[in-house]
Amino acid sequence: MPTFLNLCRYGKWPVLCLLSAILFLNMSRKQYGSQATSHFCRDTIQPYSLTEWEGLEKKISKQREFLNRSSQRSGDLPLEVRILDSVLINLADLRNSPQKYSLFHVGEGSIGEICYFIDSDIVVFNIHTDDVANFIHETTHGGQFQQGEIVFRRVHRTQEMRNDTAKGTGDDFGNELEAYRWQFAFDKESIAKLNNSLRPATKFEELDVPWLLGLQNGPNGIHIYQPDTLSGVAFSPINIYSDIHAMQAVYRKDCYWFTRPDSLAYRLGNDANYLNFLGKYLNKGYAH
């Protein structure tokens, strides 16, 4: 059942799809137990990343159970637990996906990111070694890719380039804030220690756009999420249904969006120069 829950989000019968997905998951768990995910598409995650991926998943599950036990006296399911449930569902969805994924490591002082290796058709999560919070953040963007909120350029910039990589297009304020909130649910300190020229964030409601704009890549460093209207974070929502006007408004410095011959009928999800997950899987628009 590759990415069924995400596909239903854009379907005509969302309730029917959701019920079918829940039934499938319940049947899978009865047959395979708690490791149901591993029995379907183990090779979705590249072999050199699988052991690390599973280890990080186990740490998330352990933290989720700890928070759940700690809250049983009140009888209310904490927001952190509900978010971590969503994190685990997202990770299972990525492992059941027809898209290939892998983990790479970035050095100290570098920020994590998600990118697409064009030649090998692999989406890569670049994270700090053994950093569960960073893993949650970047794989949240993976889920957004599968939901049609982020796409990747799938053509080389020049004929001579090889092993070209592309960063996500359509990554907007809402996408980044969701990733930070999911990260925060696992480890609040991972957020509190970030350099921010405005203020630190110590609770969910403080994770807002002004806080995001204040994030820096080091003390007195550059601001990470200042929109550059070229290739950086988008200041307004972008997804595979965005038209040419939305793309031009967000990426004003990129001439690509101003030279499209099909500008009147343009939709990002139908652009053959960009990898869009739902088009790839459903064979609608562009299928890689």
Descriptive report:
The protein has two domains: 1-40, no CATH class; 42-282, no CATH class. It has helices spanning 4-8, 14-32, 47-70, 79-95, 132-146, 173-186, 188-192, 209-214, 244-250, 277-282; strands at 100-105, 113-117, 122-127, 151-153, 165-169, 274-275. A hairpin with a 4-residue loop joins strand 2 (113-117) and strand 3. The protein is globular. It is an alpha+beta fold. Helix 4 (79-95) packs across helix 5, helix 4 (79-95) crosses helix 6 (173-186) and helix 5 (132-146) runs antiparallel to helix 6. The chain is built from ten helices and six strands, in the order H-H-H-H-E-E-E-H-E-E-H-H-H-H-E-H. Strands 1-3-2-5-4-6 form a six-stranded mixed β-sheet.
Strand order of the largest sheet: 1-3-2-5-4-6
Integer average pLDDT: 83
Helix count equals: 10
Sheet-strand content, in percent, reads: 5-15%
Give the termini separation. Answer: 19 Å
Number of strands: 6
Counting helices, strands and paired strands, the structural category is alpha+beta
Which blocks of ≥5 consecutive residues have pLDDT under 50?
1-42, 284-288
Main beta sheet: strand number and arrangement? 6 strands, mixed
| Oligomer kind | single chain
Shape: globular
| Order of SSEs | HHHHEEEHEEHHHHEH
